[in-house]
Amino acid sequence: MSYVNTIIQGILLGGLYALYASGLSLIFGVMRLVNLAHGDFIVLAAYTILALSSFLLLPPVLAFLLAAPFLFALGWALQRFILNRTVQSNLLVPLLVTFGLQIIVQNGLLEAFSADSVRIQLGPIETASFTVGGISLGVMPAITFVAALVVIGGLNLLFYRTALGRRLRATSDSPVFAQIVGINPRTVFAIAMGISFVVIAVAGFFMGARANFDPSVGPARLLFAFEAVVIGGLGSLWGTLAGGIILGVAQELGATISPQYQVLTGHLVFLILILIRPNGLFSKQ
Length: 285
Known about the structure:
73% of the residues lie in helices and 3% in strands. It is mostly helical. A hairpin with a 2-residue loop joins strand 1 and strand 2.
């Protein structure tokens, strides 16, 4: 029963990692862009929600609803005016640009909010739990996992059931042919980045509600997101969820041996899986 509980807790933790990874997977799937600032944008989203909640005296959920349109606009503008200039270049140029953005965001947050760790306060729900089959489950981890299902399911519906999704897939397959039929790839890329930033807002909300954070935690969030994407397979959103779950379960099993092995075990499982399946478990690329 102890190992069953550990696996279930790992699955719920995997939902958080899937939220971290969904925006990264979306952007790579549409424009083949590896955003090294992704983790820091998650932290930026968490601070934005926290600032709106504190300054406007709003519940964090309402602050998130206000932050989401702002972050969509930020992602759209970032892609439209900066990253669109790099996506047609070789791989090194967007990596360098997003690395620069990572440094700017980290230092900007440090200047604005200091190095002190903070948290998005949700009240009693943070520690609430319920019991299923003799296993105690936290309410917040369960809500996080449901949110991951909703986000990934929504992105799949967007991609495969809407006109915008057809434009996104056409532009991803061939920007040149998309232009021939009247699609502007730069506009489509900007919309995709805006959607990615809304997903980042969701990830930032749950990250901030579940643990303390500070301006320096972005790179670790990027690493977890990257590992989940690669394990699941590039281009597969449901694969990203599977990758997050595998990573979460591995970390929880490692923690049963010793707390210091928690993160290390996840990294080791990641390395083993990419040796066995270099393209990931459900790759579409």
